[in-house]
User: Which sequence fits this backbone?
């Protein structure tokens, strides 16, 4: 579905990722792993169109999307849940979710997506009129995922879903993601909780120092003795 | 489904807020429509200028309050509207087409420079809009062949007595004020409005969420320009004489800014509340402290920022539960 070739990007004089090749197949859950500062968030930003790539290509179903702005990519089905949730904190839950439909012109689809999100996260359905900034951390994360789902994405990219959340909440969030995955959603997640994400994902790849250093089925990566080495940085 | 059941469903639905605001707006309109016979010419003029400033403040609120872009130089659209309308009237146009001649260039300018200036943020954007106002105001002052230059432009008098003219101006601004409330409700409760408020809340997140930020900002500024320009056109007809230093006066923008902040940024009725408060305060200050009224305005700005950071409407909303609890007997 999503195919990345020789992708490089950075900030000013800093190169954050260099010549990354990545393939996300339709229907799979790919876990992007790696230590802090490896370039994971940069890569996701480039995929969503928030940051320009310096070299390389990004293709969605064969179509080059490298130069498209974020809202055009969303229209083609690529949605990003940014790190740290970034909700519109002064707006209600419903307003946050509806803001997510800006790239979705069809009103019946908007209603259907709202129903789907409320079904996936029943706690949001109870709190549609609550100001998003007053939700708990877990509920905010649900709202952020829901907001991304409102645009009918085919590929959902999530950056650090469990950041700063209690274990129980993490558990229920992963259960929701697993349900989405079962329904056929393609997922690309960045996650620090390696055992947890490898228990759910189909495949994993490790980004370190701006390049992909390891790749393979989740079950194989889980038991690979080399895996921890990449996180320590030797 | 009976009418009452339908109403109940609406009152609990997502549009409850819009309905409530529309109801308040309708009551306000009814009051404004029946008021003139009870007012002397002096009070009618004062109320007209309150409404005019409420409209300009709503134009400012649309950009600075809802989208979070301090369009300090918005008075440029007021001036363009005033000049366009005045020139069209002088050329023999009727009032409605003349207003269009003022409004269309203003909206076009906003759409043309919006995609450039709206890449700047905060103070930088504010300063750029100030520059825009300086440029256009200098053009108006120097294209004497078209605008009459710094000497200004006099309009032919309308039909009827001075009181008729004052009534026409009043009802013109009442209609425009209704439109400004509609714009406020639209920006608060529509999907487009969610996009605007998302930008104000967190522009990067709005971008990631699929809001075409530059387009949404430009359209919002165009709507703001449209409102402000029609106000300028009505003003030109009302006072009958305009000059660049009068209609491109930054003091109008400053006043509008203070008003929407005082009333409540990003609220529907905030600009009206602010305009009422400031206009009555300045009228008092004018009559008693002619030389100090700018000082009063400056102190007001500081007090608003310190004491009412979310404006009068926000202040009331914040303290309403306390008041209600105190007012209602405990059961």
Assistant:
């Amino acid at each position: 579905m999503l195919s990345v070739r020789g992708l490089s990007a950075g900030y000013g004089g800093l190169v954050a990722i260099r010549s990354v090749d990545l393939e996300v197949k339709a229907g799979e859950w790919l876990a992007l792993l790696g230590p802090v500062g490896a370039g994971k968030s940069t890569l996701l930003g480039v995929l969503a169109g928030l940051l320009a790539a310096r070299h390389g290509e990004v293709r969605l179903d064969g179509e080059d999307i490298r130069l498209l702005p974020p809202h055009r990519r969303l229209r083609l089905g690529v949605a990003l849940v940014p790190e740290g949730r970034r909700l519109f904190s002064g707006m209600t839950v419903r307003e946050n979710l509806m803001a997510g439909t800006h790239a979705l012109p069809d009103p019946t689809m908007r209603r259907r997506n709202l129903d789907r999100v409320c079904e996936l996260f029943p706690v949001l359905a109870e709190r549609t009129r609550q100001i998003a900034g007053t939700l708990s951390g877990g509920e905010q994360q649900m709202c952020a995922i829901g907001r991304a789902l409102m645009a009918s994405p085919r590929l959902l990219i999530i950056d650090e879903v469990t950041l700063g959340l209690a274990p129980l909440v993490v558990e229920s969030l992963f259960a929701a993601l697993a349900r989405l995955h079962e329904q056929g959603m393609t997922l690309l997640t960045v996650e620090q909780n390696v055992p947890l994400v490898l228990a759910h994902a189909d495949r994993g790849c490790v980004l370190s120092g701006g390049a992909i250093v390891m790749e393979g089925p989740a079950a194989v990566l889980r038991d690979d003795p080399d895996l921890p080495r990449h996180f320590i940085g030797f | 489904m009976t009418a009452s059941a339908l109403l109940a469903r609406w009152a609990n639905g997502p549009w409850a807020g819009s309905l409530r605001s529309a109801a308040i707006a309708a009551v306000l309109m009814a009051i404004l429509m029946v008021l003139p016979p009870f007012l002397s010419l002096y009070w009618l003029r004062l109320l007209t200028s309150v409404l005019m400033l409420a409209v300009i403040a709503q134009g400012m609120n649309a950009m600075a309050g809802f989208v979070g872009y301090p369009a300090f130089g918005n008075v440029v659209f007021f001036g363009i509207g005033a000049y366009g309308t005045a020139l069209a009237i002088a050329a023999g146009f009727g009032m409605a087409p003349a207003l269009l001649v003022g409004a269309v260039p203003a909206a076009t300018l906003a759409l043309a420079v919006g995609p450039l200036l709206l890449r700047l943020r905060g103070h930088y954007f504010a300063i750029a809009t100030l520059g825009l106002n300086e440029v256009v105001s200098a053009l108006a002052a120097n294209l004497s062949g078209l605008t009459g230059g710094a000497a200004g432009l006099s309009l032919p008098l309308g039909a009827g007595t001075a009181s008729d003219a004052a009534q026409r101006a009043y009802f013109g601004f009442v209609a425009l004020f209704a439109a400004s409330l509609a714009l406020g409700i639209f920006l608060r409760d529509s999907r487009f409005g969610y996009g605007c408020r998302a930008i104000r809340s967190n522009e990067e997140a709005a971008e990631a969420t699929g809001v075409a930020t530059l387009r949404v900002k430009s359209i919002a500024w165009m709507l703001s320009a449209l409102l402000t320009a029609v106000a300028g056109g009505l003003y030109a007809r009302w006072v009958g004489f305009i000059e660049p230093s009068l209609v491109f006066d930054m003091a109008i923008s400053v006043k509008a800014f203070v008003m929407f902040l005082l009333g409540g940024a990003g609220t529907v009725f905030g600009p009206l509340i602010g305009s009422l408060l400031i206009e009555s305060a300045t009228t008092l200050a004018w009559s008693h402290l002619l030389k100090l009224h700018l000082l009063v305005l400056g102190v007001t700005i500081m007090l608003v920022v310190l004491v009412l950071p979310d404006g009068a409407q926000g202040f009331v909303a914040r303290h309403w539960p306390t008041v209600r609890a105190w007012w209602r007997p405990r059961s």
Notes: Residues 152 and 243 of chain B are 4 Å apart (CA to CA). The longest helix of chain B spans residues 162-189. Chain B touches chain A at residues 14, 191, 194-195, 197-198, 201-202, 204-212, 216 (CB under 8 Å).
